Amino acid sequence: MSVETAAPAPVHPAGADNRIVVDGATLTWRDLPELTLPEPVAALAHSARYALAAARHHAVHGTELLLSTASRVDAAMRAELRDAGFAVTELDAPTAGDATAPAARAAEPGRLWLLTSGSTGRPKRVGHTLESLTTVRGQQPARTWLCPYAPGTYAWWQVVTLSLTQPGQHLVVVEPDQLDDWPALAAEHGVDAASGTPTFWRRALHRDPAGLARVPLRQLTLGGEPVDQTILDRLREVFPAARISWIYASSEVGAAIVVHDGRAGFPVDWLDRAAPGRPTIGVRDGELVITSPYHGAGLDGPVRTGDRAQVSGDRVLITGRLDADEINVGGSKVSAGVVRDVLTAHPQVAWARVTGRRAPLLGHMVVAEVVPTAGAKLDEATLVRWCADQLPEYAVPRRIRVLTEIPVKETLKSDV
Amino acid sequence: MKELSRAQIRDLMGEVLKNQGKALPADDAADLREVGFRSLDFSELALRVEDATGEELNFDAPGLRRIATVGDVLDFLVELQRQ
């Protein structure tokens, strides 16, 4: 028996025939626009379709790629990228390309670059590969995933690599102008798995709980911000039979913690447990420290995450960013995350943000902003009493502004 | 700059105490310890004054003084707005 071999064709990734719904069209990975990209390239996308096309291009050709939305990269960042050797290319703009030549250097095949969200200043580049960004491995049940994230972010790559590499993992992409009404889009296309920040889920519960309940979700994933028990419980009420997971992941350490038991925090016996191929999680001086096999380039060894972690009973809770979480009220230390969790546990609070505000005598006071649940009438005094029943006096927010809408950024986060 | 009157500050002080489930007596000579008005309440009142006027109060300006009564608080904040 002989086997005829044809001329080598591009090797498409295993998920190439998965269904993709993007910008009103239903297609597959194979149907996306064919791109011609220089290398190394910083590809700036104006639409989800072209961002996905760039991801597939990388999966097929291994072109060194930094992918971002055009809006995240300003003129200074473009110059910085050119100095680092990237040809800066707008994927789907009328005047594509950038005439300025980048600094000359050899491409690094297989390299993917992420821009971190830049909550602590300017975005910085973190090096990955398709392999280090692919954290869901092994046979998965067929799912249609919602992708609400901005192209090129770590969370976006998580959903995209899943669909690129696993047959049966379909994608429904939410365009930025559809973010408020994603449940209708998701229900229409049979989305049964969705990943989003707690803020993303709170907004959906706040805007239209009945609309959310119509989405046939079997998998809900939360990440990118501290995940408290209240949001897990509220989602459980709407989706009693679904698997509800939360994930701790970042472009620096990859996906490090995945929890499926419906509880906030992770079991305390996961701390300092070393296992081959798995991240090791520790808490040092109140900070979460992770050693991960899925880390970004040059970040091997223990990475101080900058996130505050505290042991509470049999769980380790991640409450927020260290530099923003601690409020010093006249010498007493308050965790903004703990106060926020007390506020969001109030049955009429849909969302809360807690910060420190400069104040006489005490240095700082705890203040808050809240969004009430639909139809609820909330006043400051009610919430102050609610907090006073559960918190030390110095931790009770004294000024509480009531907002009508949950604020959200492109990263789908509102707090950090 | 918008400046609050003594009566307006008194109203704000009443709100601070009401949120804490306490009442502000009509008598300016009332002792703050008996009223239950403490440093957290005083700081909150200062923030309320700042929010109402849109100006940050400068607590370093006046010299230290004894603040023991409701009237002392009101006098102090009235004066502070003028610094």
Can you put this structure into words, describing what you see?
- The complex is a heterodimer of chains A (416) and B (83).
- With 416 residues, chain A is an alpha/beta fold.
- Helices cover 22% and strands 31% of the residues of chain A.
- In chain A, strand 21 and strand 22 (363-372) form a beta hairpin.
- The model of chain A has no long low-confidence stretch (mean pLDDT 89).
- Chain B has 83 residues and is mostly helical.
- Chain B has a single domain (6-81), classed as ACP-like (Non-ribosomal Peptide Synthetase Peptidyl Carrier Protein, Chain A).
- Chain B has four helices and no strands.
- Chain B has helices at residues 6-19, 32-35, 39-53, 70-81.
- In chain B, helix 1 crosses helix 3.
Biggest sheet architecture of chain B: none
Shape of chain B: globular
Q: At the third CATH level, what is the topology name of one domain in chain A?
A: GMP Synthetase, Chain A, domain 3
CATH architecture of one domain in chain A: 2-Layer Sandwich
Radius of gyration of chain B: 12 Å
Uncertain residue segments of chain B: none
CATH topology of chain B, which one? Answer: Non-ribosomal Peptide Synthetase Peptidyl Carrier Protein, Chain A
Looking at CATH, the homologous superfamily of chain B is ACP-like
Order of helix and strand elements from N to C terminus of chain B = HHHH
CATH class of one domain in chain A: Alpha Beta
Counting structural domains of chain B, the number is 1
Structural class of chain B: mainly alpha
Helix coverage percent of chain A? 10-25%
Beta-strand fraction estimate of chain B: under 5%
Distance between the termini of chain B: 12 Å
Largest interface between protein chains, with number of residues from each side? A-B, 19 and 17 residues
Total helix count of chain A? 11
Organism (chain A): Verrucosispora sioxanthis
GO molecular function (chain A): medium-chain fatty acid-CoA ligase activity
Family (chain A): Belongs to the ATP-dependent AMP-binding enzyme family.
Keywords (chain A): Ligase
